[in-house]
């Protein structure tokens, strides 16, 4: 992102954090704008340009009542009808275009020895990203508020891989989802280091349509491990591919958004942004 856009997202993130923490009071436009030290007029414009909806509408998307309503509506058929909601572009994205391939036992155990990994930094509506790929697919995406820290985390996962900073077609194809022009996307392949249990959890996350939510218990039930909510939560927390594998769409059964590896304010932003985009497609 350009520096100005980075600053704008930081402002949006601070505003969303404030809205998230104070949604019960339904803070006014003026009150939220005051928190990020800009005028209500400029805040309204900045926020609407980013989210596609007004701050007031966005506030409705992230209230507890809205989350509970979404969970209740999707309780019975979330995974059976995930891709039959009529939003042929948005809701079917992962069903049509995402494919997970687990790494071989050798690749898994030896820290990526003999793996050649390309990595680059990219833009997203939610901040800068570190994106990494092997010849087989995307192996890692993380929000890179600190680029050096993000790269060191990648190298911790694959300590013996050979790294090259470069943009490749695999990365470009995956990142095109943020443009929402998915008609020309080739199948997005993910090449992931994970246990059989983790891979099963991550595959299940792909079945949660954009703009919808699930609970940890619902994911556990979907993989036929109904008593394993805690283990499911750990696997979700270990998700190595931000946004593409939508762990941000999993919230607590109470409707509370809960924690997120890259910050609860960012998770809130992603949930609200996706709800807004989905409603815009329906309109």
Automatic annotation (TrEMBL):
Gene3D superfamilies from the entry? Homeodomain-like, Methylated DNA-protein cysteine methyltransferase domain, Winged helix-like DNA-binding domain superfamily/Winged helix DNA-binding domain
Pfam families from the UniProt entry: DNA_binding_1 (PF01035), HTH_18 (PF12833), Methyltransf_1N (PF02870)
Q: Give the enzyme's main class according to its UniProt record, as a single word.
A: transferase
What residues does the HTH araC/xylS-type domain cover?
13-111
Enzyme Commission number: 2.1.1.63
Q: Which InterPro entries would you find in this protein's record?
A: Homeodomain-like_sf, HTH_AraC, MethylDNA_cys_MeTrfase_AS, MethylDNA_cys_MeTrfase_DNA-bd, MethylDNA_cys_MeTrfase_DNAb, MethylG_MeTrfase_N, MGMT_N_sf, WH-like_DNA-bd_sf
User: Which PROSITE patterns does its entry note?
Assistant: HTH_ARAC_FAMILY_2, MGMT
Q: Name one GO molecular function term.
A: DNA-binding transcription factor activity
Sorted UniProt keywords: DNA damage, DNA repair, Methyltransferase, Transcription, Transcription regulation, Transferase
Catalytic activity, as annotated: a 4-O-methyl-thymidine in DNA + L-cysteinyl-[protein] = a thymidine in DNA + S-methyl-L-cysteinyl-[protein]; a 6-O-methyl-2'-deoxyguanosine in DNA + L-cysteinyl-[protein] = S-methyl-L-cysteinyl-[protein] + a 2'-deoxyguanosine in DNA
Q: Name one GO biological process term.
A: DNA repair
Write down the CDD domains for this protein, in alphabetical order: ATase
Q: Does the keyword Magnesium apply?
A: no
What family, per the record? Belongs to the MGMT family.
Q: What is the name of the protein in this document?
A: methylated-DNA--[protein]-cysteine S-methyltransferase
Q: Which organism is it from?
A: Leptospira ilyithenensis
